[in-house]
Amino acid sequence: MNFYKARNDLGKRKRFSRGVIVGEFESTLTRCSECGITWSMPGFGRWFNDMTYNLRIYMDRDHHPDFSGVSGYPIVSTAAKTMLAETFSNAVDFCDIEMVPAESLPEELKKEIRTRNGSRELKNISNTPPQYHRLLLKHGIEADYQKSNIELAVDCAMCGFKRYVTTGSSYIRDEPMYLIESTWKGYGVFNVECRGNHLFCTEKFVETYKQNKLTGLEFEQVQLV
Ligand SMILES: [Zn+2]
Fold it and tell me: How many other CB atoms are there within 10 angstroms of residue 100's CB atom?
């Protein structure tokens, strides 16, 4: 059995669109007094798995892939959702997203984008974004952290926050990862705890993706132990 890590294809001749969160994240959690991490920040991703959170996004351009992302979390087109629901239904869950067209963006946000990224960036924003869906991966596989050169840098007993890093670095570098084959539960698509938002998959997933002519991913074979 071969396993693969999927990474986002940014687009060859024309760049693919990415999702960007509209508006402030509504915080329900506060800063942890033990580890100092504020969970409410979008970057920490808890909102992504919160099915009740109404995610509102715009797409930063008009070339839309089937697999894209928002703040590093996977979002999929309706075609990709259909394929996943048909072939890998026990491995995934979905949640709808509110798509905001360029013309409906709040004036304040437009001003902010113009100031930060220039008016060209603003002009690129899609006015006809297709419907995307949050993709939640329900199952995991374990990695050999020692062999993969990864360590758990923060493991807060109080709030449960975990941060994995590549040894000697402050984040996880894009280096070869070793997965433990015996921990695979038989699903076609799954994640690895230290890379919670990254999609890993089997050869069957890669084949189905290609048969359905889906776009937005590139696959790299991973090592097994
Ligand atoms: Zn904490």
Answer: 22
